[in-house]
C-alpha cells in the first residue's frame, strides 16, 4: 500500500473516500430521519439529494425545538420559587 | 474516565446523563444570578439566550473534544460570549475586533450542491470539512440534538410540577 500518495486538494474523480462509503453514510443518515408515512413513497433508498435535503430540514426543526424549549425553561427559571430550586438541588445530590 | 468517554460515543443514554447533569448545574447558576426574575423584554430575551447557550454548551462539553462539531460549537459560544463582554466594556469600538477566526477549508470537496452547502451551515464546524467527514459529523450531531431535546423536555416536566 503506497503511503506516499500526495493528498489531492481538488475534487477529482479519484478521491480517497469511495462512493460506496459515501452511500453508506447517506443511508445511515436516512435511518436517522423521522419516518414519513407516505403510501406513495417506495420503501428503501431515497436519493442522496433527498436525504440531504430532509436532513437539513430535520436539523432546522430540532434547532427550533431547542429554541422553544429554551424559552420555556427560561420562563420557568424566572418564576421558580425556592421550593423548586430545592427540588433541583436534591436531584443533583442523588 | 477515558472508557466513559469512549462508551458515551456509542451509548447515547450516558450522553443524556452527562448532558442533564451539566445543564441542570448551569441552570441552577443562571437562576441564582442577579435579576433572574425580571420581566422586562430585554431581560427575558437575554435569559432565553443564556439558557439556550447553556444547553448547547453543556451538550458540546459532554460530547468532548473528539467530535469536530462539538469543538466548533464550544468555540462559537465562547467567542460570542467574549464578544458580548467586550461590547459591554468598549461600547462602539468593537466593530473592529474580529470575533471569529475563519478557517480556510482544506481538502473539502466542493460538490457545490445546494443541500451540501445548507448542511455545512447547519452543522457546527461544517464549513471546513471533507464531505465524508461532514456526513459523519452530521449523524452524530443529530443523535445528540435529539438527546438534548429529550432531556430538556424532561427537565421542563420535572420543573413544572
What is the topology?
The complex is a heterodimer of chains A (94) and B (161).
Chain A: H1 19-32, H2 48-79, H3 82-92
Chain B: H1 2-10, H2 12-32, H3 41-63, H4 68-90, H5 114-122, H6 131-159
Would you summarize the structure shown here?
By secondary structure, chain A is mainly α. Chain A has 3 helices and no strands.
Describe the 3D structure.
The complex is a heterodimer of chains A (94) and B (161). Chain A is mostly helical. Chain A has three helices and no strands. Mean pLDDT of chain A is 75; it is low at 5-14. In chain B, 71% of the residues lie in helices and 0% in strands. Chain B contains six helices and no strands. Mean pLDDT of chain B is 82; it is low at 3-8. Classes of the chains: A mainly alpha (94), B mainly alpha (161). Chains A and B meet through helix 1, helix 2 and helix 3 of A and helix 2, helix 3, helix 5 and helix 6 of B.
Biggest interface, chains and residues, is: A-B, 45 and 52 residues
Low-confidence stretches of chain B: 3-8
Low-pLDDT segments of chain A: 5-14
Rounded to the nearest angstrom, the radius of gyration of chain B is 18 Å
Largest sheet entry of chain B: none
What is the H-and-E element order of chain A? HHH
Strand content of chain B: under 5%
- Class inferred from helices and paired strands of chain A: mainly alpha
Assembly type of the chains comes to heterodimer
Keywords:
heterodimer; A: 94 residues; mainly alpha; 3 helices; B: 161 residues; 6 helices
